[in-house]
Amino acid sequence: MSTAVPPGGQRTLQKRRQAKSNKDKQLNQTPTSARQAGAGGSSNSILKIYTDEANGLRVDPLVVLFLAVGFIFSVVALHVLTKVTGKIF
């Protein structure tokens, strides 16, 4: 009769060490693209828009908000104006 191998022992310790080293490798692996990096993983991310390094026109967000609301109001006003003048003429 063959003797049964008790649970635990060297094989179990070796498997645990190998699993831990594989997990550590995955955690320490640096992403290769900005999409894999996530929101803060790349220096060339969307946050560059809000820094002084960004090129182009700098417009305050409040100005953009007022321009957008003004545009929407003008479209609604023109629709109302065409409905009113269409009934008169």
Automatic annotation (TrEMBL):
<feature type="transmembrane region" description="Helical">
    <location>
        <begin position="62"/>
        <end position="81"/>
    </location>
</feature>
<dbReference type="InterPro" id="IPR016482">
    <property type="entry name" value="SecG/Sec61-beta/Sbh"/>
</dbReference>
<comment type="similarity">
    <text>Belongs to the SEC61-beta family.</text>
</comment>
<keyword id="KW-0653">Protein transport</keyword>
<dbReference type="GO" id="GO:0005784">
    <property type="term" value="C:Sec61 translocon complex"/>
</dbReference>
<keyword id="KW-1133">Transmembrane helix</keyword>
<dbReference type="InterPro" id="IPR030671">
    <property type="entry name" value="Sec61-beta/Sbh"/>
</dbReference>
<comment type="function">
    <text>Necessary for protein translocation in the endoplasmic reticulum.</text>
</comment>
<protein>
    <recommendedName>
        <fullName>Protein transport protein Sec61 subunit beta</fullName>
    </recommendedName>
</protein>
<feature type="region of interest" description="Disordered">
    <location>
        <begin position="1"/>
        <end position="43"/>
    </location>
</feature>
<keyword id="KW-0472">Membrane</keyword>
<keyword id="KW-0256">Endoplasmic reticulum</keyword>
<dbReference type="Pfam" id="PF03911">
    <property type="entry name" value="Sec61_beta"/>
</dbReference>
<keyword id="KW-0812">Transmembrane</keyword>
<keyword id="KW-0811">Translocation</keyword>
<keyword id="KW-0813">Transport</keyword>
<dbReference type="GO" id="GO:0006886">
    <property type="term" value="P:intracellular protein transport"/>
</dbReference>
